[in-house]
Design brief:
Number of strands of chain B: 11
Structural class of chain A: alpha+beta
Distance between the termini of chain B: 19 Å
Number of helices of chain B: 7
Low-confidence stretches of chain B: 230-236
Low-confidence stretches of chain A: none
CATH architecture of chain B: 3-Layer(aba) Sandwich
Helix content of chain A: 40-55%
Oligomer: heterodimer
Shape of chain A: elongated
Number of strands of chain A: 13
CATH superfamily of chain B: P-loop containing nucleotide triphosphate hydrolases
Shape of chain B: globular
CATH topology of chain B: Rossmann fold
Helix content of chain B: 25-40%
Chain lengths: 387, 236
């Protein structure tokens, strides 16, 4: 307590030098929280969007289905049992049938994935209700990216060729019923959504599906031969992406933090050099050398406490503002799940961890030069002799 | 009764490849309530002797007992405790802590003793009364004159009522009037509290106040005189 009191007195007494260090450290502190908050916000939004648009609360896959292996699509489908159909009726599961196809938008050829989705489903945010129409013909919905890539718009027709369960090629003109906007590229890029019944009929796979998407109130447990893929599995790629982004961002944060810590280290070295008489006086008055080391260490570490206070003074209003308006990135198409506007998320854990990081590292760099005091001869220190 | 007992004390400092002998075969003892001066030219070993008595340094040979504790055998912690409880220091350059007020500078000595707040306040105010600085408690050292700074240093050394006060050239930076004022204050405290004062000085003004003068020359005790200020000295 005495060391803390002395440290703050000395720090505040040092005036401008202290505030310069505190400003740099507070900037590092705010930036670390801001950037991590931004990534956490992206992470949370990305997970939310992926769940809402693509994976629900988990999926049951046909045992042969492997999303990374297109050759499995042809064989990975199974009939929906009565039990499954009951869950579908209750809105707890929605089946999706997947089929490979080739589309010919405006005379060009493009490989696509046809996905059969129940127009009445409510588990995913894909606007499947747009597939419900009394008009004659085959209707499809596509995402904005797909529309841009194929230069298609609502009402356009496109020839699609596919193979049915027997490997027989067939082709049909489909009409774009709607173009939807979605932040999750796998839902959009190269995907064409048509009514499940229609695709089952096109592929001669009546009442069959490749996978089943679960809702948040699904509590049916294991389901026949279907293999459950949980959120950790389905979001693994996204987690890896965020981890890679965090890794890249941490380099910048470390550089900034190191700069701030160098300033503290430098101040400590100078302070110990200039205040040798004071150190000698402390020892003469009855402090042990380690107590004096403690004062100087706490003094250096206290920069981080002041930095947290100063950082909070301008950081909190800034974070509140960003939390309200978000950070708009326009309409990025980077092939990753990212929304136009990201709302940073500042968790208590993030703030505590950032605070600990800054406090501990500031204390360590303060301790390193302060160790020199333990080797000082008090008589030389009192004379202010260069040691 | 001797509270400082020095026997065959030798102190050497490494200089280049050899050693410089700052103190050579010093034998001295100081009793309670003494008001003594170590005098001699620069380099005679006054400050070195004071530092050893104050447990800031250790003897190379011989023994130095302070409050019945052998300085050479004390650990860092024990010597810190000895200084904290029993020894006060007064320096030529005052060595006040610049960011603290007068009150806080004096209080600091008691904070190290973990004295409770009420007692501490009482003791600080009493010490400031001794030196006549109760009206300056909120001033910082840079707002004080040299004489006032040294009075703060005296209050700081005396506030814990130590048995020994070691003053290294306490008047060297002061004018004549301030020097006398300071010495009168210390003389008064010596009488009232029976504290042993040992000065290292070559200031004639200081010597006039001493009851005992130990002359050092080339690291050895040249003369040890007891003075009663009636020209009756006991020359060794």
């Amino acid at each position: 307590m005495l060391a803390l009191k002395l440290a703050f007195k000395n720090l505040l007494g040092a005036g401008l030098r202290t505030w310069l260090n505190v400003s740099i450290l507070s900037f590092a502190f705010v930036l670390i929280i801001f950037y991590n908050g931004l990534l956490d916000g992206w992470n949370r939004q990305g997970i939310k969007d992926t769940k809402e648009w693509e994976i629900g609360e988990g999926q049951f896959w046909h045992p042969d289905y492997d999303e990374m292996d297109p050759f499995t699509i042809q064989v990975a489908h199974a009939s929906l049992s009565g039990k499954v159909q009951d869950f579908v009726k209750d809105g707890k599961l929605t089946p999706i049938l997947i089929s490979e196809a080739t589309a010919y938008p405006q005379g060009r050829m493009r490989s696509v994935v046809l996905k059969g989705i129940d127009p009445k489903q409510t588990i995913l945010k894909i606007p499947s209700e747009d597939l419900e129409t009394t008009d004659k013909g085959t209707f499809a919905i596509i995402g904005k990216r797909m529309a841009e890539a194929t230069k298609l718009k609502e009402g356009d027709n496109m020839l699609v060729r596919w193979r049915d369960k027997n490997g027989t090629y067939d082709a049909r003109e489909i009409q774009i019923a709607a173009v939807f906007k979605c932040n999750v590229p796998p839902v959009d890029n190269g995907q064409i959504y048509i009514s499940l019944d229609v695709l089952q009929e096109m592929t001669s796979l009546p009442n069959e599906a490749t996978l089943l998407v679960t809702s948040d109130d699904y509590e049916g447990g294991e389901l026949e031969d279907w293999v459950f893929k949980d959120l950790d599995f389905l979001l693994n790629d996204f987690y890896d992406l965020i981890a890679a982004k965090k890794g890249g961002a941490s380099i910048m944060q470390i550089v900034l933090l190191v700069l701030a810590l160098l300033a503290i280290f430098d101040t400590q070295v100078l302070s110990i050099f200039r205040r040798q008489k004071e150190i000698g006086t402390y020892i003469a008055m009855g402090m042990t050398r380690m107590q004096v080391v403690g004062i100087f260490t706490v003094e250096g570490g206290a920069h981080s406490i002041l930095a947290a206070i100063v950082g909070a003074a301008y950081g909190i209003p800034l974070f509140i503002y960003l939390d309200k308006v978000g950070i708009t990135f326009g309409t990025p198409d980077m092939g990753i799940t990212i929304s136009e506007t990201i709302y940073p998320y500042y968790s208590v854990q993030l703030i505590i961890m950032s605070l600990l990081l800054v406090v501990i590292s500031a204390t360590i760099v303060s301790y390193l030069p302060a160790r020199k005091i333990s080797k000082m001869k008090p008589t030389d220190a009192l004379k202010g002799k260069l040691q | 009764m001797a509270i400082i007992e020095i026997n065959n004390l030798v102190k050497r400092f490494p200089v280049g490849k050899g050693f410089f002998t700052a103190l050579n075969d010093v034998n001295l003892s100081f009793g309670e309530g003494e008001f003594a001066g170590l005098v001699g030219p620069s380099g005679s070993g006054k400050t070195t002797l004071l530092n050893i008595i104050g447990s800031l340094d250790t003897p190379s040979e011989g023994t130095a007992f302070v409050m019945e504790k052998s300085i050479a055998e004390l650990t860092h912690k024990q010597s810190a405790k000895l200084r904290n409880k029993h020894i006060g220091f007064i320096f030529q350059t005052y060595n006040l802590l610049p960011v603290y007020t007068v009150y806080e500078n004096v209080e600091f000595a008691l904070l190290l003793q973990n004295m409770n707040g009420t007692e501490r306040k009482k003791a600080v105010m009493q010490a400031l009364e001794w030196v006549g600085l109760t009206d300056k408690i909120k001033s910082k050292p840079n707002m004080l004159s040299g004489g006032e700074c040294q009075r703060v240093a005296i209050a700081r050394s005396m506030v814990k009522k130590p048995q020994i006060v070691l003053a290294d050239e306490p008047t060297a930076n002061l004018d004549s009037t301030n020097s006398h004022h300071i010495l009168q204050t210390m003389e008064k405290l010596n009488k009232e509290l029976n504290t042993t004062f040992i000065f290292a000085t070559h200031d004639e003004k200081v010597m006039k106040y001493m009851k005992r003068i130990v002359s050092l020359k080339d690291g050895q005790v040249h003369k040890d005189e007891l003075l009663n200020h009636s020209e009756n000295s006991n020359q060794l």
